[in-house]
Amino acid sequence: MSNRKTPLVINEHYHIFNRGVDKRAIFQDKTDLDRFFASMQIFNSIKPIGSIFESNFPTWRLNRQVATPLVEIIAYCLNLNHFHLILKQVAENGITEYMKRLSGGYTWYFNNKYKRNGSLFQGTFKSIHIDSDEYLLHLSVYVNLNNKLNGEIIPLSKSSWGEYVLNDIGICNPKIILDRYTNKNDYSKFAKSSFENILMTKNQEKELQGFL
């Protein structure tokens, strides 16, 4: 039985996030970033993947269609030392199984490549239940633009922003977000306005921390 404070329920949405142990970088180069991104789709299957992943990776291609997925990926942002995901659980125990495969598979790859041992991520992934449409909409902005929170795109990062507003081929299903708007341009306008508030709040928090 899981002792997770936030129960993970089918057809509910969650903010999933984690970072490198001791805040270390989890991506050393673009190949690492591409590997994690590919893993996000390849491990999203009820069927076991096993060693097939290693042989398939060089010829892997983007494909939103997954026959029997564990989760539905709504948005993501992969940063140098941490990641954010918005996931909908569509299979029993789907998020837990998905994150176990994703984190475990990538850690094996990373440790093998860089000749290291031990954990790469800081414990078990964190999860927050997204309990309202408003929360989901604003969180989509936070995640899609998370690699720009310092005013410019963070090196070695990748987000689903292009899948939302630029017609990029990817792995997300942004329909639950974009259906709230007349078109992608309207979402883009909402996102930029919401993002300004996020930046303002972040800057205020930094100022307050200086007095602590």
UniProtKB/TrEMBL annotation:
Any matching Pfam family: Y1_Tnp
Residues covered by the Transposase IS200-like domain: 9-146
Source species, domain of life: Bacteria
GO MF terms held by the record: DNA binding; transposase activity
Any single biological process term in GO: DNA transposition
InterPro entries per the UniProt record, alphabetical: Transposase_17, Transposase_17_sf
PANTHER family linked: TRANSPOSASE IS200-LIKE DOMAIN-CONTAINING PROTEIN, TRANSPOSASE, Y1_TNP DOMAIN-CONTAINING
Stated name of the protein: Transposase IS200-like domain-containing protein
Species assigned in the record: Candidatus Zambryskibacteria bacterium RIFCSPLOWO2_01_FULL_45_21
